[in-house]
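Notebook entry, structure prediction.
Reason for the run: the old model in the group folder had no record of what sequence produced it. Starting over properly, with the input documented here first.
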Amino acid sequence: MAGEVFKTGPFAGFSVHDQFARAATRETAVVFDLGAVAWPDGLEPTPIALGSYQPGEKIDGPVQFKADVLVLHYTELETSAFLEVFTGDKDWSPARRDSWNPYAHNFASLSSIIKGKNGSYALEHGFFGYLNAVMIGDQTVVLFKTELHAKVNGDKLPIIPVVQQLVAELAPSLVLSTGTAGGMGRVLNCGDVVVAGDARFRVNTTYPTYPDINTLSRNNTALSNSVAVNDTYLKYAADNLTKLTRRSDLRRLRICHDDQ
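New structure, fully documented this time:
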């Protein structure tokens, strides 16, 4: 059936006909142990309390906390990768999940536009995802493990109003949407980092609530970034962090990703 989805596993909520999900379920994940990360002096992430909220306390109203940076995570595997780098412990276990703060502000008013709730503990229990905080240098960073995904929860894209709401409450000066990607050409290898000045947004789905997305895709419009990139720490990472690219293993490691 056209509406059939994966009920469990890393692709819970995704259509069973999704080409990437189907291909990935036939593969064995390659796990690479990073070891200790050589953070620059004074920049090693340090866990902090999310304001006055107790660990695991559900947030039903606006978040009473301010952040310099908001970082979004989507899948459990992406969250695990982030946690390994930032904490040295990649385990996204139920115990760890329960120590983060469930974010539920305005869930009741947005619930009707969220499709694919089944299989998501958070969405079935009335919240959008989990919040946590760390300090990096003098920057307060809030992490949001969202249980919403543009590809899973319907063409009204409930992830957009939720992120807009969080930005209004936390007032960050920077929002980072993290994730994994592939299928971008044979010039890229596992572990490569790409900083793009121009990008194009292409979709196969029509989004009636956000017609500009359809227009950008249809017209093949290039989105340009004019922000100057400070490459100080990019160079530091290239010199000090573990090299993930192993060209001899490239065929075994590459999984092409045919995204929206």
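Summary: Residues 19-253 form one domain.
The old model has been moved to the deprecated folder.
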